[in-house]
């Protein structure tokens, strides 16, 4: 079990986070750039010193400000994979994989085969593609017998297919080796594909922690909703607004499935395999993702599926939804 | 304009009698290409001129030497003693630079020193001061009537006109070349690689040995070889503080003074032959290391 409850001072704000990750479980730290996500990882890895807090891994105390204890990075057995895989450029793939400890050849060959880099063992890192380099870096961490895996936006710059393939690979390895893993990302899709728990971090504050679908469908606050992709907030009562996620809208009136909004289309463009429309409702422009191109001009009716509601202080409030809102 | 002429314009040609320049793409593209080729030609000529100019003294040396002069100069009794002195003092200088200059360069590269600009300025000072001035100032610093000189005297050592003085002068003349090169070499190694090595279980010193040092070694070797060449050719500070024992540069100078240019040239060749191989070897080795790294 990885247990981290830390406060780390940064120049602009203090990062406060408390997370628990069981063996074989995956946690994603999601938030905007500069939110303090990497700081949390670096505190776990021992690269930054928390002002206050305690970090334990598998019963070992890695950091305890109370006990004035801090295990140095080289004794933590925590693997960190960053966006730059950090392969040692003067060593071959084989030497990189075996860097952490002498590895018997069969074990090395087996893992290299599993990672799809079995044919690349004599190759120098400069000859590897981005995806291959990440696989080798991942293999290096696994062969070093790390007790926890920390991933700091490792897939940035890779194409979507490769990201998904690497995510699936990491998930299967983490589960098979029964180790806790923490992913830092600012791509919600990456976080959802990877994690069993999603933590939302903003300006150093842990805003919400829960199952990914729960966090996305029931954000605890308007700020969390904004971070997970709610792009419009429509007043539904004098003190309550409904959060509108573009991907949770349906063309037409479906009163049993959510709030029905009526407004005028002010813009429309292709988006992926469908269309994205700007709909003006009660002085607010909401964005809807629709499978078919909406008709131009006139009133457009759209149903927002089971939206979250927020009070004047931005906190989520129980649903007290009206049936219809007209623009 | 006829249809043929229009086609010609479209193809980029100037229409005879049309008067206006053809506004076509290919014609416009031709000019930058020509400019590029002209500028490229000028660049190559300029590079060749400066290269030949730099090599000129060596060419002059080789063309003005005769085997007879070399034989008579270098076979005289004790003729090669200055070479031994120069090689020995150069070796001591390199050892001092490696031991003391390397940690300084690493600390400067990693920003581990307080007031880093002050440290850099200190290193640059000895680069900017003329060697002759360094020699004069060294007299005030380590001469026999200074505290350091007196301390050395208690140890039966002297920092003027001794082998120690020669080494001190050579260190001052060559140190900035090595320290600044080494700083650049260490600065070129991503600190995150060291961090990664530590996370994989290496203590800092082991990470330095396994990651930082191999990656910085080509740059360190280049810096060291340049420092070696500077040490072997050190003259300005040496003539002030270490006139004796003679190294090769002083041998050249005194031979020139006593017997003329023709007798001094063979020693210049010796200096070149001794000082040059290390930088050349370092260059070739660095290039090979870089090629190996690129796979």
Q: How would you portray this structure in words?
A:
The complex is a heterodimer of chains A (327) and B (295). Chain A has 327 residues and is an alpha+beta fold. Chain A is built from 8 helices and 21 strands. Chain A has helices at 37-45, 93-97, 105-115, 130-143, 160-177, 188-194, 212-217, 222-227, and strands spanning 2-9, 14-21, 26-30, 52-57, 60-64, 69-70, 78-81, 148-152, 181-185, 197-202, 205-210, 232-237, 240-244, 249-251, 258-271, 274-281, 284-290, 299-305, 309-310, 316-317, 324-326. Chain A has a 6-stranded mixed β-sheet with strand order 7-8-9-3-10-11, with helices on both faces. In chain A, strands 14, 15, 16, 17, 18 and 21 form a 6-stranded mixed β-sheet that branches. Chain A has a 5-stranded antiparallel β-sheet with strand order 2-1-4-5-6. The longest helix of chain A has 18 residues, at 160-177. In chain A, 44% of the residues are buried. Chain B is mainly alpha-helical and 295 residues long. Chain B has helices at 3-10, 25-63, 67-74, 81-109, 116-128, 131-142, 147-154, 163-187, 191-199, 204-232, 236-241, 248-259, 261-275, 277-293. The longest helix of chain B has 39 residues, at 25-63. Chain B starts with a helix and ends with a helix. In chain B, 32% of the residues are buried. The interface between A and B is medium-sized, with 28 and 23 residues.
């Amino acid at each position: 079990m990885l247990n981290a409850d830390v406060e780390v001072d940064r120049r602009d704000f203090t990062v406060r986070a408390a997370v628990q990750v069981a063996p074989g479980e995956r946690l994603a730290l999601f938030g905007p750039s500069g939110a303090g996500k990497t700081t949390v990882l670096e505190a776990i890895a021992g690269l930054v010193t928390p002002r206050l807090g305690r970090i334990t891994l598998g019963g070992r105390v890695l950091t305890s400000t109370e006990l004035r204890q801090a295990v140095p990075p080289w004794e933590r057995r925590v693997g960190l994979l960053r966006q730059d895989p950090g392969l040692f450029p003067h060593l071959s793939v084989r030497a990189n994989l075996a860097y952490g400890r002498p590895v018997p050849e069969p074990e090395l060959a087996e893992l290299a085969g599993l990672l799809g880099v079995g044919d690349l063992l004599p190759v120098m890192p400069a000859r590897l593609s981005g995806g291959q380099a990440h696989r080798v870096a991942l293999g290096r961490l696994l062969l070093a017998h790390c007790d926890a895996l920390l991933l700091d936006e490792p897939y940035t710059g890779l194409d979507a297919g490769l990201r998904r393939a690497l995510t699936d690979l990491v998930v299967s390895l983490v589960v098979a080796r029964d180790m806790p893993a923490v992913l830092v990302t600012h791509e919600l899709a990456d976080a959802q594909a990877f994690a069993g728990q999603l933590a939302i971090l903003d300006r150093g504050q842990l805003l919400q922690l829960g199952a990914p679908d729960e966090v996305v469908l029931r954000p605890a606050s308007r700020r969390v909703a904004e971070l997970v992709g709610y792009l419009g907030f429509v007043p539904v009562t004098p003190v309550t607004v409904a959060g509108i996620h573009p991907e949770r809208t349906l063309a037409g009136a479906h009163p049993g499935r959510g709030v029905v909004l009526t407004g005028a289309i002010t813009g429309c463009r292709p988006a992926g395999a469908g269309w994205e429309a700007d709909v003006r409702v009660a002085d607010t422009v909401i964005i809807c993702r629709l499978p078919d191109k909406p008709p131009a001009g006139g009133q457009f009716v759209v149903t927002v599926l089971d939206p979250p509601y927020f009070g004047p202080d931005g906190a989520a409030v129980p649903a007290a939804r009206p049936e219809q809102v007209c623009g | 304009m006829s249809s043929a002429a229009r086609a010609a314009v479209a193809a980029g040609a100037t229409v005879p009698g049309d008067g206006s320049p053809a506004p076509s793409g290919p014609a416009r593209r031709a000019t930058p290409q020509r400019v590029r080729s002209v500028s490229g030609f000028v660049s190559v000529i300029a590079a060749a001129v400066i290269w030949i100019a730099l090599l000129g003294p060596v060419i002059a040396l080789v063309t003005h030497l005769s085997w007879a002069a070399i034989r008579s100069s270098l076979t005289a009794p004790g003729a090669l003693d200055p070479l031994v002195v120069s090689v020995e003092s150069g070796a001591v200088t390199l050892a001092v630079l490696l031991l003391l200059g390397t940690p300084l360069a690493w600390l400067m590269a990693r920003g581990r020193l307080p007031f880093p600009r002050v440290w850099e300025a200190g290193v640059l000072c000895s680069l900017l001061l003329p060697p002759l001035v360094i020699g004069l100032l060294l007299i005030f610093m380590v001469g026999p009537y200074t505290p350091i000189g007196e301390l050395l005297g208690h140890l039966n050592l002297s920092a003027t006109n001794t082998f120690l003085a020669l080494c001190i002068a050579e260190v001052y003349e060559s140190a900035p070349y090595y320290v600044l090169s080494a700083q650049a070499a260490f600065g070129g190694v991503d600190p995150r690689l060291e961090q990664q090595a530590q996370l994989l279980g290496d203590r800092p010193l082991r990470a330095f040995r396994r990651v930082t040092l191999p990656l910085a070694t080509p740059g360190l070797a280049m810096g060291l070889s340049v420092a070696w060449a500077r040490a072997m050719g050190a003259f300005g500070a040496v003539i002030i503080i270490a006139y004796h024992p003679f190294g090769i540069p002083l041998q050249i100078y005194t031979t020139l003074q006593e017997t003329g240019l023709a007798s001094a040239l063979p020693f210049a060749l010796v200096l070149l032959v001794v000082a040059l191989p290390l930088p050349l070897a370092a260059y070739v080795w660095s290039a090979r290391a870089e090629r190996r790294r690129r796979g």
